[in-house]
What we know:
67 strands, Methylamine Dehydrogenase, Chain H
Amino acid sequence: MMPRVISTCSTLMIFFCVAAAYAQPDLAVRSVDAAGVVGDWQALTISGSVDVEVANVGGAGAPTVPLIVFEDRDGSGSLTAADKVLGVAQTPVLGLQGKVVLTVPVSGDLRFRDNLIFAVVDPDNLNGESVARRANNVGNSAVRCADPIPSVPFSIAFKGEWPGDEISYPDALNILTTPMVADLDGDGLVEIIFVATDSTDGSALTAGVLRVISGDGLFEVFTISEPNLPINATAPLAIGDLDGDGRLEIIAVSADGRHLIAFEYDGALRWVSPQLELIRAGGPAIADLDGDGAPEIVIGRQVLSNGGNLLATGTGGAGRGFAGPLSVVADVNRDGVPEIVAGNTAYVFSGGSAAGGLPSLSIVWQAAVPDGLVAVADFDLDGLPEVVLVGNQSVRLLNGQTGALLWEKPISLGGPGGPPVVADVDGDGLPDIAVAGSFRFVVYRGDGSILWQEPISDISSGVAAGTVFDFNGDGAAEVVFRDEGSLYVFAGAADASPRVLFQTPVSSCTWYENPVVVDLDSDGAADLVVPANNNCSFGPQRGLKVYHGGDTPWVAARGIWNQHSYHLTNVEDDGGIPSPEADSWLTPDAAPYNAYRVNPWQVRPVSSPLPDLTASRIIIDCDTRTAVVRVGNGGSAAAPAGVPVAFYGQTPQPGHAALSVLSTPAALAPGQFVELAFDVPPAFDFAAQSLHFVADDGGGLVGAVVECDESNNAFAGNAAALCPLSFVFFPPDVVVSATVDIANPGNTGGAATAADSCGNDVGVSFVDDPAGVSPPFPLVVTRTWRAENSCGIAITRTQRITLVEETAPLSLACAAPVSVTLVEGAAGVPVENVELPLGISGGQPPYAATDNRPVDVYPLGTTVVIFTVMDAIGNMAECEALVTVLGPDDSGQPRPDINAEERRITTTTRNHGCGLVGLFPVFACVAGLGSMKAWQRRRR
């Protein structure tokens, strides 16, 4: 992991040093195209090239790094020592959003025909990318193997509304807060929980009634109206299982904004807190702060027990926006203990001890910026969270571990700014920030730049919130927001046109409320729940408006939204409060949620993955009359067990009967193969017929599996091609004495051996022409070697054997000892200055000779020069010549202080162009030199 860099930007310079504070590159393999690969599918070797597209989707430029193309042999999905590297390349420097297509030459072997080919960029993580970012560093060629699925266009339809026909307190219809959704009593049916009022004055402290209605809106479960304990209609509720009994409690804010009130799942009063700091339109959050299994309630900078007792009050920020506090809980410093992030301050809670210690809130960090509303996410994908802080007409990003300011941006055209919503709005894999002001709804990228913005009207407060959901699951999210007069659904993509996908009148005076996306009726499709009120006379709508996908159902959503700071990991599906809570920016591991005030969604696949069954490498055992074919799956989906594979004795045609059909014994996942052994009928002639195998063929070319490529299912060949036969050892041409028994190959260079690639038995024989040996000599015998395997496939090759008559024994005569005097100051006597005549007689010409004379000079002392001569039929002879080099003062005699043995110097063998290389004549050296005089002339 790369070290974090804390911004030291001054206020004046803050807009110019945003990205440097934390931005990282993020290299991604976008595609792997193996269309340029050429294969020998019997040998299973490949050549050609693979095209790999690499993009930098991070927030900083990326230097040049390696790219490796490989076969994933251990099925890990990443490059390991067990894998086969096929090619290597280097990426160029890639700036922000830069991309390149690299054509990588490949070679090597695959396990089966058209197996998946993988590519990994920056395998050694030279860029220091976080674990979350590295998930996209690997890609493979499986993407090509899919059946396109038509995209589902966005659609929206009105589903229903509350109130219905008969309700209690019929005038209390204005909903000013985020509606909560949960299964209160554990019966498997969700309820919608909210506070409604008949007030229209726009105040932040307005009494209302607590309502619980069925998720389908058909009936009222209960309504609570306590004249002596009125509930604030502008403050969002929190829902959760406070006591672990499997049924949920409801936490509301009193109408005076000074107390929290808890109700049981059935509406019974549970407790009322002591007086607290002013809450107004703020709302509580539920979390287990000390890991004891009993949740606490957080409101602003105060902590209450699950029994309603005030435990601690902080001394820093309270998470107050324009209308009241909305604190959140997250382990922002990654120490294993959750912090309360209350605006510009992070606190850690201590629950006290048995020794008498009191509960307390300690400040972890306090940023030197105004208080405000927050959300938590990992914007640079380094595994460490940042804090989004909205307030005082600005959006700020803080380092989650230190509180250091990373960047600050104004809210377009002003407004206090509502609770931030975090989600990947444009589908680039990085979280974005959606914030509403008074006149613009703005989506910021993680580096503070504006992705897009749209006009809205919220002059009454400028603090409303939205949410994000990919309703049609096409990978391009939609953003939902409701201002004073309309409900909007915006297209999230940066270049979307039109931006506004849907707009309909839904009025509100606006507080912190936001629409929520949940599954109200457990039908597996999301619903959109929107609160409405006619406060401040912005419109006539009141109650709840519910929308769905109409004839095209939306993708699935959870059936819970339990508090304003909802973020997936803060609550279980049944309303239980997790202990400890998983980090929302890292959960789940495979695809982290990394969002806030958003329900997760599933992207509909743009294509349906398909298998790709291939046949390759046929191994024939002619002794047992079996043929083994390799069947693999190089697609993107598993092939089922029982896929038929047909064997034909001729080119298959529709309707042709197969010789036999076998089935794959088990499912084949992408990258897996199986070998099937077929019995070959006795009538099949290996030498004359070809073997044809077709994967996914029950006979007559009738398949059972839908594949992405049907052209690679068949593989064929004859025995000669499939099991090539070759000589392993073949004797050289030789010259031998006419007296040698050439019927014994040991006398003529050895016996030939042969093998085929399938391991069949191979017999080797020979025939000589002429068959007998008789004068005159020399006589050339042509020996034809024949190798034949058990399939009836044969090959031949000839050897030349020359027979010659015996002659007199080979004899050498070396020169007499030679003495020379060293010239004063010389290192030795040049070799060319000393003549060593050699006489050769007998044997069978031509001759090959070597000697071991020094390369340049004879040194002081005696050098033993050994001459070695071989004649044409392999006879060898040696003789020695002595060359003595005397010192300048020796006067022709060896010095008395140096004995003869000390003067004898034996050098390493030297070849004067007459090398002994087999039994061939060296005419340029000693051919025809039958006398000492002739050899002496040659040396000159």
